Structure formats: structure tokens, C-alpha cells
Amino acid sequence: MKQRIVVTGLGVVSSVGIGWKAFWESLLAGRSGISKIEYVDTGNYPTQYGGEVKSFDPTRFMPPEVARRIGRGAQMAVAATKLAIEDAGLSSQELESVRSGVCLGTTMADIQALESANKAWIQNGDRRIKPSWAAQYPSCSISAHVAAFFKLHGPNYMIPNACAAGNYAIGYAYDLLRLGKADVMVAGGVDPFSRIAFTGFNRIFAVAPERCQPFDKNRQGTLIGEGAGILVLEPFERAKERGATIYAEILGYGLSCDAHHMTIPNVDGLTRVMERALNDAAIRPGDVDYISAHGTGTPANDKAECAAIYRVFGERGRTVPISSIKSMLGHTMGAASALEAIVCVLAGYDARIPPTINHEEDDPECPIACVPNKFQHHISRIVLNNSFAFGGNNACTVFSHWSSKNI
Fold first, then answer.
1. Which of 103, 145, 212, 294 is catalytic?
2. Average of pLDDT values for 183-189?
3. Per-residue DSSP letters for 251-296?
4. Is residue 163 annotated as a catalytic residue, yes or no?
5. 135: domain CATH number?
């Protein structure tokens, strides 16, 4: 359990860029990935905007015949994994020669397959339902496709813990490596845009008309997005031996369940998960230089998150930089905390913090330093990544910026 686990590769598919460099540059520029939704006919919906990845061509990352038989979520996961493995400088031979595994999180998995089957059934009956849709829908098919595509013969897991799933997956992959049960892990999260998620969030009146405004006094809700975020994790000694670029070290993580309500956050539960993450990382609240907020832009979630931050950080909650990239991506469900983990890694690596865009008026109930509208130059040695999900399923991860002092 004393092995130090580091991040050596990053892969991103998002509405603001594909590949971590394009993603990072867009976030720092405050560029929004929100646009008019195309996947769903929004004529009968009160909202029409979301964070679709419209520039994604899966055949850039896999043969067309593979792209045709797997779902959009699996396509995004394979693409982001390919980018992360290449970024880590790992060859297929290296991956096949060690215990390389996959641990991914999701909310809806490849629900688009079920939606396609439903539409075909209504219009034409069961004879128009493609057998491939049945194979695409189970969440385990996504991690299985990633493993098969890259010949990863180690542990293989899919964690469907809603909007905290990416952090759950990163934490579990971290444990497998510390316990010596794997040598390299591909970890992160993925979710494609879905009619079910879009409809559900509209029905609970949690979707904003056009903009996501986390922590703003006049915020009206979140926006639904999609994407994939993948990190390559491995023990420090192995990464050092092969001369890998080391972006960050994972110091620890925390988990909690509010055990309270399916959709309403509970401040006690959010407080517990942050405290557990800091304790697992053996750090104090005063050591944290930046917090990547869950920051959905809904009135209840933002208020509860700020209240929990105050319980954990005290008055420092007013000054520690905090930002929410959901202001630019919308809520990418199972991919959210994985993409935000990549932000945490890059915030330390690049010494810059992305902004919370669309911020116009401070909210007295959210008196935090939300990095409004423009990025900040900031040295972030230790970073906390918050994710809070439906069902009260919470997960936080802690990253440390890598430097020569750590070696």
C-alpha cells in the first residue's frame, strides 16, 4: 500500500476540444462548448442547448468497421484511451506484457442503443431492431471494448455511480495499483448524450435555458453534455524507470453516501467525503491550493457545496481558488469528474486555473473565490476534485503537482 501512484497519460473527448491540449487551451480561454442540441428533437422541450461533441469522428481513432458495431460511449472511451496511451508513451507490446487494466465510470452507459431500439420498435416493430443494439447497451461493454481494442488483459471494471463515477473509477484503479494487483491502469469516465438524461433533467426543472452559471446569484440550472476523460495511472518507480512524463501524483481519495435523498444534496455527506479524501491523502485543509468544484449551476447543489467547503476549510473557503468547468462543458454525467480530474492534474502541471465562465453577480450564499470568467496564474501543489452524484453518491480525489522535489 506504500507504492506511490502517478499520472503519466491524459486523453480527452469533449465539446471544447479533443485531446488534452485542445481541451486545456479552450478551458483557459473560457470557450463554451454549449450549442443547439442536434441528437434530440427539442421542439417539445423547454430547453434546447447542451454540450454535444460535434467534432468527434470515431474513424480517426479506430477502423470504420469497429466504429459501426460499438456505441457512441464506447467510441468515445476508445478514442480517449488511445490519446491517453499515446500521451503516456506506452506501446502495445508494453501493455500486453504487463497486468494492464481498465476501470471506467458512467451514468447512462451506451443508452443511445436502447433509445434507438425503442424508436425502431415504435415505428416498425421488433423486426427493425438491430441485434447489435442489445450488445451495446450493457455498461460492461464499454470497458470490454476498450480492453479488447488495446489488449489490456488485467482487471476490468465499469462503475455506474452516476455523476461521481469517474472519481470512483480513478480511486479504485489507484487501489488496485497500490495493492500490486495491476501494473498499469486506464481510468476515467464516459457518457454520450442521451434523450433519457436530457428529458429527466428537464422534468426535474434542473436545466438552464441557455447558460450554466455555477455559483452565480441568478443561476438557473445545469446543461447536459457528453464526453470522455481518461488517465493512465502507474506506480512511480515503473514510470521513472521508463522515463515517462509524470503529470501528477494521486495522494488519496474519499467516498461517502448521503443516505438522504435521491436528488437533493446533503451538506453532512458532502463534508464527510471531503474530510475523508484529505485524511486519506494525509493532508490538512490548509494544504489545498485549488478545488475543482462539482459546481452544477443548480441553486441547491451550489449552495450545499459551498456550505460543505466552509465546514471543511473554515474562513479559507472564501479565498482558496475554486472553479467549475461545467460552466463551459455542461454536465457530462459519468465523464464529469474524470474530465475534472484531468483539470486538477493540468492545473498543477501548468500553474494555471481555468475560470468559471458566465459569472455576473456574486451570490451571498456562495461566498467563494470562483475564478470568475478569466483564468488565473496560480501555483497549485495540492488539488481537491469534488464530485457529488444522485443518490448521495460522493467521491473526491486529491492530486499533487509533480516536481523534482517529489523524487
1. 294
2. 98
3. EEEEEEE--S-SSS--HHHHHHHHHHHHHHTT--GGG--EEE----
4. yes
5. 3.40.47.10
